[in-house]
Amino acid sequence: MFLHNLMRWMADTRWSVDLHESRYAYSIVESIHVWTLCLFVGFAILLDLRLLGVTLKSVPMSQITTRILPWTKAAFVLMVISGLLLFFAIPLRTYHNVFFRLKAVLLILAALNAGVFHNGGMYRRLEEWDIASVTPRAAKLAGAFSLALWAAIVFSGRMIAYNWFDCESPQKSAFMDTIAGCDRTNQEVP
Amino acid sequence: MRTKLTLAVAGASLLIMAGAMPALAHHAFAAEFDANKPVRFEKATVTKMEWTNPHVWIHVDVAQPDGSKEAWAIEAGTPNVLFRRGFTKQALLPGAVIVIDGYRAKDGSHRANGRNLRLPDGRTLFLGSSGTGAPDELKVPTTPKSN
């Protein structure tokens, strides 16, 4: 309820209204989100496939991270900023959207996966397997998780546009309502 | 050999993605609305207009034969699309009585994808929503053209 009210407040702020009513800004932010998402996922796929030992096998892992990771990080920052702006433009509806909630959970999992890999022993002992064409199991797992999670994140992100399970739509099931955090006793549109 | 296989896989993936693209290009009409269920509201009283991206929503009360009212929400295009057709946030104020043509939501809710709107002064507006994409869409009984 606290978050619901926070989103409701946010939706009425001047900047949120200006953004969702805008003639150009919203579309530009949306485009930036998709462009930077393409860059980020594109670079991430290269890293993941190298971790899996599928491609760029003759290139040392450290070479790939030195060259590609800065671009990946830059794209990530722009992607997150534009994504937050998209949320900020339509906070209340998005907060109650099941696909957004799924995406949020998947993002946390992706962050954990990246965090465990980068701070775990495997990445610190990189020199041991830097030039190995067959990568260690833990590295393969990290790459596979990353590929699967980011594919699912892009998919669920795209699905946010659909209102099938929105609180204003007819109830599909009590379960989906719980996921969406809908309060159907409240006549007011959330 | 290996290269050929990789190329084949990449080519096949591209083809599949290309096939899926039209469905992803837009918040698809067919996902939410039914092209076989056109609706026309002869007397819809505007209660609120949500001037918002990615789609503007016009909320109306529709007079029923028995005198009661039914609340409906009509989806239109983006604010930019409507603006280019001479529409603004202040163009539809609560209380305005309008005529609306559109297509019903598949889920049976009181929502419709708006196609045309006629203002009290007789001017018409193409609502510029996602539409059915059907080439003969305009043959469905509709409001007369004013421009």
List the helices and strands and how they pair.
The complex is a heterodimer of chains A (190) and B (147).
Chain A: H1 2-11, H2 14-21, H3 25-52, H4 61-89, H5 91-95, H6 98-119, H7 121-124, H8 126-129, H9 137-159, H10 174-180
Helix pairs in contact in A: 3-4, 3-9, 6-9
Chain B: H1 2-24, H2 29-32, E1 33-50, E2 57-63, E3 69-75, H3 79-84, E4 97-105, E5 111-118, E6 124-126
Parallel strand pairs in B: 3-5
Antiparallel strand pairs in B: 1-2, 1-4, 2-3, 4-5, 5-6
Based on CA atoms alone, the radius of gyration of chain A comes out at 20 Å
- Quick one: overall form of chain B? elongated
Structural class by helix and strand composition of chain B: alpha+beta
**What percentage of the residues of chain A does DSSP assign to strands (E)?**
under 5%
CATH architectural category of the domain at 29-126 in chain B: Beta Barrel
> Structural class given helices, strands, pairing of chain A?
mainly alpha
How would you characterize the largest beta sheet of chain B? 5 strands, mixed, barrel
Low-confidence stretches of chain B: 21-26, 139-147
List low-confidence stretches of chain A.
none
Description:
- The complex is a heterodimer of chains A (190) and B (147).
- Chain A is built from 10 helices and no strands.
- Chain A is an all-alpha fold.
- Chain A has one domain (2-180).
- In chain A, helix 6 (98-119) runs antiparallel to helix 9 (137-159).
- In chain B, strands 1-2-3-5-4 form a 5-stranded mixed β-barrel.
- Chain B has a domain at 29-126: Nucleic acid-binding proteins (OB fold (Dihydrolipoamide Acetyltransferase, E2P), Beta Barrel), CATH 2.40.50.
- Helices cover 22% and strands 35% of the residues of chain B.
- Chain B is an alpha+beta fold.
- In chain B, strand 2 and strand 3 form a beta hairpin.
- Chain B is built from 3 helices and 6 strands, in the order H-H-E-E-E-H-E-E-E.
- The chains are: A mainly alpha (190), B alpha+beta (147).
- The A-B interface holds A 19-24, 26-27, 30, 89-90, 158, 161-164, 168-170 and B 24, 27, 31-32, 51-54, 73, 78-80, 83, 89, 107-109.
